[in-house]
Amino acid sequence: MESLDTQELTIKLTPKHPWSDVLIAELSELGFDSFVDTKEGIQAYATVSLNTNELLKQTCLNGEHDLEFEVVTKVIPHQNWNAKWEEDFHPVHVEDLATILAPFHDKTKAKGLVVEIQPQMSFGTGHHQTTWMMTKGLFEFEALPENVLDMGTGTGVLAVVAEKLGAKRVLAIDIEEWSAENARENAERNNCKLIECKHGGVDLVDGEEKFGLIIANINKNVLKAQIESYANALEPRGVLMLSGFFSSDVEELVTFSAQFHLTKEKEWSRDEWAGIQLRSSN
Hints:
Rossmann fold, 7-stranded mixed sheet
């Protein structure tokens, strides 16, 4: 039987910024389940079955950057991870537009649209700059397109916001089965009836269904590998919102997207992170 124990990696980073965010983004793609921000870096959690020493070599800790770090690993016996999330998850305010909170938070202090998320192990509580930017970006539409695709949905927070802002159909996809299930649970928690959550990859959108808006908050390399599929799945003059990369990556992504008839309309930035809105010219 596979052990339910967990590895806790306490990683001290000098400098902490922007490397703590970089490392979280990288480790989330390598099988790490959850993260806690600390004063000097992060704590990252993974099952004991993962060879974390080898995985760290695939991140910004690979010695190619001007970055000093220390890693301390310990094994934690199986515990109630929901209680751990409750300890570390604080409400997120996207200006006065929306409040992303958990079931145990005081809703009387919420502002704007209220989205209730039980994060479990999934990415997307609104704390990360990219989720915050994409949430704000959804509010900038005069009218949200009726058919929306949320790739890499995580907790489903952006799918929930999309439905609450008027989308008539939201397809939420995640490559992790437990994320797709978490998104499904959060859609129900927010009384959303128009969200369909699926477990899988970009191959699920290579069919005939077209979308007026596609949201993809993943990372630069995955986005570049999938942009052609997104472009093919857009309705004429459809919109593609991308995030999960740094401000320094914007020009590269805009140039790369142009070959698929996608033109930049907007750009957002928050700390070192960026997001862009592209429109299809087809």
